[in-house]
Amino acid sequence: MTNFDFKRHRRLRRTQGIRDMVRETYLHKEDLIYPIFVKDGENIKNEIASMPGIYQWSLDRVDAEIEEVVKLGIRSIILFGVPAEKNEIGSSAYAAEGIVQRATRQIKKNHQELTVIADTCLCQFTDHGHCGVIENGEVLNDESLSLLVKTAVSQVEAGADIIAPSNMMDGFVAAIRHGLDEAGYNHIPIMSYAVKYASSFYGPFRDAAHSSPQFGDRKTYQMDPANRVEALREAKSDMEEGADFLIVKPALSYLDIIRDVKNNFHLPVVAYNVSGEYSMIKAASLNGWIDEKGVVMEKLVSMKRAGTDLILTYFAKDVARWLDESK
Ligand code: PBG
């Protein structure tokens, strides 16, 4: 016996049963959004060198991946297009026969119940790799908006359930909301990349989507990682312009921002667990340096603890499997 007072926290950790009773945060399959790269061409299943386990798919092969996703109980996917043709204004982003539009039609035909989110941006479709129109080396804001609106409307025409604009032009939520409403799509939600940092963690995605800027960087439109109050301004304006979900991206180095957004705005929050965050864990686990399942589950639970409602992650299929195992 001790002769001084202290608290016995370990009582609530004594058995698995008690630990489960007091667990505060859970991860569910419904929280997961799985990214899929669809590529123009035939018979393509290309593993992305910097993202082991993640592939670019041509449409004649992607059904196998979709079947697996559905079977695992994942309820939503986000599509990224890798087009055959790029040009100055990224017109394949809004072509009726564009890769994302065709993929959406094909997937929705077989799986109406699967929520298909379309990433709405131009950088994969422009030859310069920027997310908007260029003039004299500058990314023009207002001139880019009409192209984004066209892209969003064409994606919804193809059957997309949710539009996720990721380009970080000012006013993109207002423009797309207005454009969708005018086209008769006022029932389609916007999942805005509201808080998107100019991050080095996007490197592997740019390999996957062939979307690296061919000159300069994205710092005139994506945010400085050092800024926190600015994230609140971005989220506030997107909410006021009509966003239905707010994305924070990347996730892991930005848990404080997730909490801020959750506390300040009463909209569902989405954490984008980006490519570099995936690749680091994959590399370490393939080397046998860390326990992949343990690290991934801890990382995703920490995002939920920070306040996110949903998680966009390349680990979604693994997590769905691990959740089944733990039942
Ligand atoms: C394009 C876009 C990017 C990502 C999603 N959409 C990259 C970028 O801004 O260059 C990054 C996703 C990831 O790293 O997983 N606007």
Shape: globular
> Bound small molecules, which ones?
ligand PBG
Number of strands: 12
Radius of gyration: 21 Å
Distance between the termini: 40 Å
Oligomer: single chain
Strand proportion, as a percent range, falls in 15-25%
CATH topology: TIM Barrel
CATH class: Alpha Beta
Question: Which architecture would the CATH scheme give at its second level?
Answer: Alpha-Beta Barrel
CATH-assigned homologous superfamily: Aldolase class I
The portion of residues assigned to helices is: 25-40%
**Can you give the mean pLDDT?**
96
Brief descriptors of the model:
binds ligand PBG; 10-stranded mixed sheet; TIM Barrel; two-stranded antiparallel sheet; 327 residues; 11 helices; globular; alpha/beta
Task: Describe what this molecule looks like in 3D.
The protein has 327 residues and is α/β, with parallel strands linked by helices. The chain has a single domain (25-325), classed as Aldolase class I (TIM Barrel). The chain has 11 helices and 12 strands. Strands 1, 2, 3, 4, 5, 8, 9, 10, 11 and 12 form a 10-stranded mixed sheet that branches. A two-stranded antiparallel ribbon has the order 6-7. The protein is globular, with a radius of gyration of 21 Å. The relative contact order is 0.13. The structure holds ligand PBG.
